[in-house]
Design brief:
Elements lengths: L14 H9 L2 E4 L3 E7 L6 E5 L8 H18 L6 E7 L8 H17 L1 E2 L12 E2 L1
Parallel strand pairs: 3-4
Antiparallel strand pairs: 1-2, 2-4, 5-6
Helix pairs in contact: 2-3
Length: 132
């Protein structure tokens, strides 16, 4: 039986991947989340999470937010363009119930699907942004 979790190749794992998103990427967001993105050449989207103690001092609350983001991404990832994503939660996310957070995440994925990837990406291109 196949695991229903998020596969390893769909996650950002190296510090260099996160650093590339911090320095040269596009961004958008909503009330509870901020998303940084960069086109990748892997042909599939990858997710990285940055949920700091500023969001909530309680680890159980931060972990709940992470689980919700991962589950929402797992369901939407087949429709997303090939981008590296770093999702950062804002302080407002800690007080909201799960269904409200999932609605906002669905809106963010929908916004990301509407973007058009640049056609002139070269391997030496460092920006990797998505043209709107």
């Amino acid at each position: 039986m196949r695991a229903a979790g998020l596969p390893r190749e769909a996650r950002l794992r190296r510090a260099g991947d996160f650093a590339a998103l911090r320095h040269a990427s596009g961004r958008f967001g909503g009330r509870c989340f901020s998303v940084r993105y960069k086109v990748n050449t892997l042909g599939q989207p990858r997710l990285g999470l940055a949920i700091s103690k500023r969001v909530s001092k309680r680890a159980v609350e931060r972990n709940r937010i992470k689980r919700l983001v991962r589950e929402s991404f797992r369901r939407a990832r087949l429709e997303l363009p090939p981008v590296d994503l770093m999702v950062m939660a804002r302080e407002q996310a800690s007080g909201l119930p799960g269904p409200e957070l999932l609605v906002e995440l669905q809106a963010l994925w929908k916004k990301l699907r509407s973007f058009k990837p640049e056609v002139s990406l070269k391997p030496d291109d460092t920006t990797g942004t998505i043209a709107r």
